[in-house]
Amino acid sequence: MELNPLKMSKGIRVALMGNEAIARGALEAGVALAVGYPGTPSSEVIETLQRYGSEIYAEWAVNEKVALEIGIGASIGGARSLVTMKGPGLNIASDPLLSAAYSGVDGGLLILVADDPGPITTQTEQDSRWYGPLAKLPIISPSNSQEAKDFTVKGIELSERLQLPIILRTTTRVNHSIGEVILGDRKIPKRYQKFEKNPERFVRAGMSWNFERHKWLDSRLKETEKISEDLFLNSLEGDGRKCIVTEGIGYQYVKESVSMENRDIRIIKLGLVFPPPLNFLARSLEGCNEVLVVEELDPFLELTIRSYAKELNLLNVKIKGKIDGFLPLEGELSPEIVRSFIFGKKEEDVMKTELHVPSRPPPLCPGCPHRNSYLAILTGISKAGFKRKDVPIFGDIGCYALSVYPPLSAIWTEHSMGASISMAIGMKLSGFDKPVIATIGDSTFFHTGIPPLIEAVNKRVDMLVVILDNSVIAMTGHQATPSWSETETGRKTKEIKIEDVVRGIGVDELRIIDPYNLDEMASAVAELLKKKGVNVLIARAPCAIYEQRRKGRPGYYTVKEDLCTGCLACIRATGCPALYVTENGKVRIIEDDCYGCGLCAKYCPTDAIVRGD
């Protein structure tokens, strides 16, 4: 039997992660083009589709804005498209998002936005549902893997019937939970149909045209609830007078809680979360004497229900949720929290188990070249005659942000994609009289680092930019960057070299150094810190994990016990997780984890750390 879930036949039951189910749904919807930018918890959708074959285009774009604009370009020609990103990625893509609402689409366009309550892997706990009313675009929300697949199909249909992009909003537990999925039929991908010149629709430079398109957009939103009922996006269970309105993963917690208590409770599940399905809500909430709203992050649904209380005949009904503090505004929900909310149970009554796990900040991997780069930067600052506390190191989004933790404690900021260079510019332009350093990864540089570097050169700002080039988008699972000559699907590409881009911008000096040559890089940092102008140092060495998977590790190091004094200099300097301390206070190396970079040996005063046989 075919083991690839994307190629299995209709009717087969298979266990799928939510993201894998979305990928399968894209095939069942006839999607011809899938494009995105890696970001946990959304990355596996494109990765899964890339294993399907060449029948559809499934590739990474340089950033989310470009990805969405590619999807829009395909969809206005009648093709069916899927665009994927994590929550903050929609901030990058918000400019074309709002314009796409006015232009509309002809082929279905589904925009997967994966939010991250917790947050588990994301810089903010953003609730992307607010983009619905901002952009005036419908948002649908699945609750499990089966719905993740089905809502992908329904979302494409809803998009074509409304002629609008549709936002498929998920959260981490839906994206990464595994559940049983019954597969449907795969459709032939719907590709380009036609595209005719229509400036009134597609050109935003005409203000009177924009006014008319705004009215058109509002008229389409009014049709959303009717079509959503045809697609059975919302559901009603039970007929009790205590009523719960919920969506997404919150629905699973509600179902678990209600089934455990065996109570007669009415559950109103919304698959369409914007625009609010008022007719469905009015019918479903009739006769309720209490309404509880269960949702993660912001009180989005609760505010909606409260604002339409009169229309929903709820003026004399108690509405409970986050606003009055019954549920937390931050972090994930859980079955225990939801059960306590619904039934007023105390924590000990809902069998909540506290796990006391020692705190362990995420480390850079063994052999990671970024560890060497930051050690070289810190050493270079000292060699240049400055104190570390006097030279700000602006960080960016990526693996290298883990340098914020001891023992490196290197970066001072990590804000948003590409912001390291921009913020360093701002610091200098504000009158800061000492050097500044901006550190940025290779994929982040391609993503949004190029415009601020242009700004720095154009405005003649004195600064050092260190581009940490490990040749892959490492933190989200080792995806392709524009520097690759071939993508994961085997598509041949034209390699874009960072140094060519940097030289083309016109920086004052450019150096390319292997960060494993720590002393050489430290000297270069010290020299460039003293030079006027925009100076760029590319620290180039492949990601250790990715390189090891491709070629095997170059070796490993071990500790001679008789020479180790237990001074822990190697651990204090590097923080490498392959090092540990034994009960007798001496250092050992987990040889299976060791990459063989030899950095720890550099800091051993007794030469106890040596290459293994």
Show the helix and strand layout:
Blueprint: E1 13-17, H1 18-28, E2 33-36, H2 44-50, E3 57-60, H3 64-75, E4 81-86, H4 87-103, E5 109-115, H5 131-135, E6 139-140, H6 145-162, E7 166-171, H7 172-176, E8 178-182, H8 199-202, H9 207-221, H10 224-230, E9 235-237, E10 242-246, H11 249-261, E11 266-269, E12 272-274, H12 278-284, E13 290-294, H13 300-307, E14 318-320, H14 335-343, H15 369-383, E15 393-394, H16 419-429, E16 437-441, H17 442-458, E17 463-469, H18 498-505, E18 509-513, H19 518-529, E19 534-540, H20 544-551, E20 557-559, H21 569-574, E21 579-581, E22 587-589, H22 599-602, E23 609-611
Parallel strand pairs: 2-3, 2-4, 4-5, 5-7, 6-7, 10-11, 10-13, 13-14, 15-16, 16-17, 17-19, 18-19
Antiparallel strand pairs: 1-8, 6-12, 9-11, 20-23, 21-22
Helix pairs in contact: 1-2, 1-6, 3-4, 11-14, 15-19, 16-17, 17-18
Describe the structure.
This protein is α/β, with parallel strands linked by helices and 613 residues long. It has four domains: 218 residues, Thiamin diphosphate (ThDP)-binding fold, Pyr/PP domains (Rossmann fold, 3-Layer(aba) Sandwich), CATH 3.40.50; 116 residues, 3-Layer(aba) Sandwich (Rossmann fold); 182 residues, Thiamin diphosphate (ThDP)-binding fold, Pyr/PP domains (Rossmann fold, 3-Layer(aba) Sandwich); 59 residues, 2-Layer Sandwich (Alpha-Beta Plaits). 36% of the residues lie in helices and 16% in strands. It has 22 helices and 23 strands. The strands form six sheets. Strands 3-2-4-5-7-6-12 form a seven-stranded mixed sheet, with helices on both faces. Strands 9-11-10-13-14 form a five-stranded mixed sheet, sandwiched between helices. Helix 13 links the parallel strand 13 and strand 14. Helix 17 packs parallel to helix 18. The two termini are 45 Å apart.
